[in-house]
Amino acid sequence: MSFTDQSITCADCGVEFTFTISEQEFFAQKGFSNPPRRCKPCRNAAKAERNGGGGGGMGGGSDRQMFDVVCDQCGVQTQVPFKPNGAKPVYCRDCFRR
Predict the structure, then answer these.
(1) pTM (2 decimals)?
(2) Beta-carbon contacts of residue 59 (< 8 Å; ≥ 6 apart)
(3) Rounded to whole angstroms, what are the CA distances from 73 to 69, 78, 80, 94?
(4) Full residue range of the structural domain in which residue 46 is found
(5) What is the pLDDT of residues 22-79, one digit of tens each?
(6) Neighbours of 75 (CB within 10 A)
(7) Is the dihedral angle over the CA atoms 26, 30, 35, 37 positive or is it negative?
(8) CA 48 to centroid of chain Cα atoms
(9) Positive or negative CA dihedral for 55, 61, 62, 67?
C-alpha cells in the first residue's frame, strides 16, 4: 500500500497537522484503520490526562491528596490515595501485594 502525507485538522485545537507517511506506515503496522484526530501535542495532553498526569507512575508529581493510615495487617504507618471509611481493611503497599 502506498501512502502520501495527509493534512488533518486537530479535533481539539483546530490546528492543521501533517499525518506523515512514516506515521501512516506505523498505524498500518499496528492495525489502526483510522487516522489520528488530534495533533501530537493534543494527543500527548490527552494521554497524560487519561494517565493521571505527572508523567505516569506513582508519585509522578501529581498533587493528589494522601491520607495517613495504619495497615490493618502489619500495623505500619502508611499513606493511601483515598479516605478510608472503616468499612473495609486498609493495607500498606507490601501487605496489599501479598
Answers:
(1) 0.49
(2) none
(3) 12, 12, 15, 10
(4) 6-50
(5) 999 999 999 999 999 999 899 999 888 888 755 545 555 557 888 899 999 999 999 9
(6) 9
(7) negative
(8) 5
(9) positive
In a domain, 23, yes or no: yes
Q: Phi and psi dihedrals of 30, rounded to 5?
A: -80, -5
Domain contains 60: no
Residue 58's alpha-carbon distances to 7, 39, 48, 64, 86, in angstroms, are 37, 27, 13, 11, 24
Task: Indicate if 44 and 76 belong to the same structural domain.
Answer: no
Q: Which of 20, 23, 28, 26 is nearest to 4 (CA)?
A: 20
Asked if residue 83 lies in contact with residue 90, where contact means CB atoms within 8 angstroms, the answer is no
Count of structural domains, the chain: 2
